[in-house]
Specification:
4-stranded antiparallel sheet; 15 strands; disordered C terminus
Length: 174
């Protein structure tokens, strides 16, 4: 039982905070190099990848974490916030988010570079996601007009869209 949470409101360095969860209690972790909010951390407590967000300007930056220290990594191709992701520190994917509007943009990370990949079918932000770089899912979220119940599955070769309200009990956003 190990978990990791990082970020928060970027003022007064709050957005640099990291906390570890051991299944029973939370404890302080390493401080990030860039304070940010509206982002996602993927990977594990000892090998995490933190991507994009708001500083309060929208950023493309990414950082890697070894369980103790955050280090600057290479920037994504496109800055965004409210993006979500899946995978590991060296085989990650980030998708969706908000650029100047809801986005479907997808980028994969191999530990050294970001590469644009097959975009989501539905532009969205503030949704739930998980999985691996080659088999991820996204559910719920908001587009530019409403909160939606869309579910999509991403594989290395295709994106499968399930219908609005297919798998969720109602429209929701995280």
């Amino acid at each position: 039982n190990a978990g990791l949470k990082a970020g928060g409101f970027p003022s007064a360095n709050v957005g640099k905070l990291t906390e570890h969860y051991d299944g029973e209690t939370w404890s302080a972790g390493g401080s990030a190099t860039v304070g940010r909010e509206d982002t996602d951390v993927i990977g594990s407590q000892n090998a995490a990848l933190w991507v994009g967000g708001n500083t309060p300007s929208t950023v493309a930056s990414s950082e890697v974490y070894n369980g103790i220290v955050w280090n600057k990594s290479v920037d994504m191709n496109t800055a965004r916030r409210y993006n979500q992701g899946a995978g590991t520190q060296n085989a990650g994917i980030t998708f969706g988010g908000f650029i100047s509007a809801a986005s479907a943009l997808t980028e994969e990370f191999n530990g050294e570079t970001w590469t644009e990949s097959g975009d989501m079918i539905v532009n969205r932000y503030r949704f739930a996601s998980d999985g691996t770089q080659n088999a991820a899912w996204a559910a719920g979220g908001a587009d530019d007009s409403a909160i939606r119940a869309f579910t999509e599955v991403y594989t290395e070769t295709s994106t499968i869209n399930t219908s609005d309200a297919c798998c969720l009990p109602g429209a929701w956003s995280v």
